[in-house]
Amino acid sequence: MDKQFLVEQLTSRLRESALVARRAGQAAEEEARDGATPSEKRENARVALEYAGLARGQKDRANRTIAELATLETFRPPSRLAARAPVALGAIVEVEMEAEDESSSGLQGRTFFLAPVGAGIELTGPGGDGFLSVVTPVSPVGRAVLGKHVGDTIEVTVKGEPREWTITFVE
């Protein structure tokens, strides 16, 4: 799979997120400043304070996302890992697990892209081929798979329940 395509897609998603956060921060600032008449602000100063807090939070979110984008600019994932190599940053990892839903039986699979940033973002493979969830080395799933090999079983907690996953593929 073209990992550079995944990095470009992740970069695009993070840029969108930073833009949305900046716009939301600006809108909250404007609302805090101009959203009420001076007499309304005196009567309900809490609203202006809430909007100001929201504006700070959105600016912080935008700044974190910009820092993540800077990290991605220098990230070059390996095109392929050597056969039997341990899971490392830049790997695509597939796992199998028992079906979580009682109405389903058998095994279910999930695919992860281990990136330095962007945890939780869902990407699509080239040409819309499948979905991959981004995990980072500091996330629970990232920590669980890092350094493991195909065939290893890992334990992760999903919705408060421990689950066993088996690594079936690493690229």
Report on this structure:
This protein is an alpha+beta fold and 171 residues long. The chain has four helices and six strands. A six-stranded mixed beta sheet has the order 3-4-2-1-6-5. A hairpin with an 8-residue loop joins strand 1 and strand 2. Helix 1 runs antiparallel to helix 3 (45-74). The protein is elongated.
Detail the topology: elements first, then pairings.
Blueprint: H1 3-34, H2 38-43, H3 45-74, E1 92-98, E2 107-114, E3 122-124, E4 131-135, H4 140-145, E5 153-158, E6 161-170
CATH architecture of the largest domain: Roll
Q: Give a quick account of the main beta sheet: strands, pairing sense, barrel closure.
A: 6 strands, mixed
Termini, distance in Å?
A: 8 Å
| CATH fold-level label of the largest domain | Chitinase A, domain 3
The CATH class of the largest domain is identified as Alpha Beta
Number of helices: 4
Kindly report the spatial arrangement of strands forming the biggest sheet.
Answer: 3-4-2-1-6-5
Radius of gyration, rounded? 21 Å
Percent helix among the residues? 40-55%
| Class based on secondary structure composition and strand pairing | alpha+beta
Number of strands: 6
Order of helices and strands: HHHEEEEHEE
What fraction strand?
15-25%
Domains, number: 2
Overall geometry comes to elongated
Q: What is the average per-residue confidence, as pLDDT, rounded to a whole number? A: 87
Low-confidence stretches: none
